[in-house]
Each structure stands twice: as C-alpha cells, then as structure tokens.
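Slide 14.
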Amino acid sequence: MSSDWVLDAGWYDEDAQLNPLWVAWKSPEAIASRLERLWTVTVPTWTDETPPDVDRFAQAEVDWLCDVFDSIFTDRDALEEPDNRQAADEFVTYFGEALIARAGGEWFAKHYGGDVHSPLFDGFNPAVGYRWEHSPDDLTDLLYEAVEVDGGPDAVMEVGQAIYNRDFDHKEAFGLPGGFDEVRRRPGLA
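Slide 15: predicted structure.
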C-alpha cells in the first residue's frame, strides 16, 4: 500500500485502502482463488474451446478470454445480473492481474470522493495504478466499456486493447524489448 498519490494522482484515498472488504478482496489468497475458479468453473461452463497454449497473461490468452467474456456478458444487464456477479469478479481479477503482470501495475481501491460506489462491488472499486504512469485503469469501467460498444460486446477491443496499450507503454517507458503492432496499437491511454 502506498501513502502517496502516485497510483491515482488527485484521487488517491488512504482510507479506501484500509476498507476491510477491499483488504480481503485483494489478498493473494483471494486473488488466487478467483483465478482458479475462473479457469476451472466459469470458463468451462461457457465454452468447450481450450485456451491458447501460451503464458497465462499473453495477449493471445487475454484476447481469447475477452471472447469468453463477450459470450457471458452480452450487455449491461447481463453484467449487472446478480447471478453473474461472481463471474464478473473473476474477470476483473484476471484483467487486473494481466495489467499487473504485463505493465507493472498495482492494485488499489479507486475512490471518487463521497460514498464509494461500484455497480459490481460493495464498498470499493478495484483499480490498477502505475508508478511510472499517473493514469490508472478502473477495472469496472473497462468491463462497462466492453459491454456498451455499439453492435454488441467487444471486450477484445476495449479490455484487450487497454492491456495491449499499457504493456506497450510500459515497455517503451523502461526501454524493454517488445513487439509493436502498428495495426493493433491505438493512441495511448493517458
């Protein structure tokens, strides 16, 4: 936990990081449990396809899982359906962990002032911040952007692209090797 505002300049709230619900949600054991359930229960329930044989957070894996997300969450109502809350939580966890693994992010509880409100979470809003970039990713916002695309859900374009962009920006910021895909790359997120 950071006592500065580097992860979310102007909005970082130390008290939000101490919320017992948030502390329990972001524990390594809780994260591991949600990821395990995503791969052993949720994904097999929605598809018979097998994921690509690549690293768990490789772009091909992210994009494949985005397609599974689209089959579950066809619109905003499906995302907010109480029966889908656990699956949404698992996807938030996976996409956040992908940002952490690929772009050097850190979990923190996003706070907008006043009462913390997230349609998917009670009392906190999961976000990933970066010590090298002062523009965090609000995971709930990313899921909503994915289901609100004109023409139907498109998590590859919204979530997968955000992860790709952050990965590229991280590599560029630190001079790390990495492929650049001119076709795929959209303007930066910051």
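Speaker note: Confidence is low (pLDDT under 50) at residues 182-190.
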